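If you are new to this repository, start here. Below is one unmodified record pulled from the training split, so you can see the exact layout before writing a loader.
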Amino acid sequence: MSPPVPPIIWTAPPKGSVLVLVPHADDESLGCGGAIALHHRQGDRVKVVFATDGGAGDPLGYYAGLDYRQLRREEAGRAASILGIDEMLFWDYPDGRLAEALDLAERLEALFESDRPDIVYRPSTLEIHPDHWALGVAVESALQQYRPAVGDLCYEIWATVQPSHAIDITPVWEVKRKAVDQYESQLRYNDYLYMVAGLNAYRTLFKPSARYVEAYRLGREL
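And here is the target side for that same chain:
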């Protein structure tokens, strides 16, 4: 067995059209918000697909009486404006039950065929949150049927990856931070900004001159 190799360090992500696949509104900012902001800076078109409706994100009922799913969409819209996302698509599968979406892989396959992205960001199958895991599995299944070359990059949120690539996001950290800040409904439950700042700071092990780094695992080759 060969020993693992250090990740390739990018100061900028690869150029091309970008498709970001996330289970919930806020995962795009937490998992790959820095990469998205860098793609925007270099003129790449970015589309984000939110797989679930986020309806299970208020278990204590802080937002009872409000259209909570719409609230999550509005938060996503504000974050998208900050990151430079060009298009958002909401599939509205029930939050917490994405593994029950039997048509998910087929729907992703159709999306790949229609959009023809150059780069895909998505959860890894190491994720321990069931919706994240289900989306990662479905993407891998769909990509098996998709023939064109695509950069398949797994971001990390609930579980880390053994990184093949790492991106210095120091120049856009404040952009990512502001995007995460838009998710007040989720920050009321967990200090996700503190958590992701720690994760992105930890990943500077691969580039000590940086302040914040996002790590990715490459699936299919670029």
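Two things worth knowing about this chain: The CA atoms of residues 49 and 89 lie 5 Å apart. The chain is about 35% helix and 20% strand.
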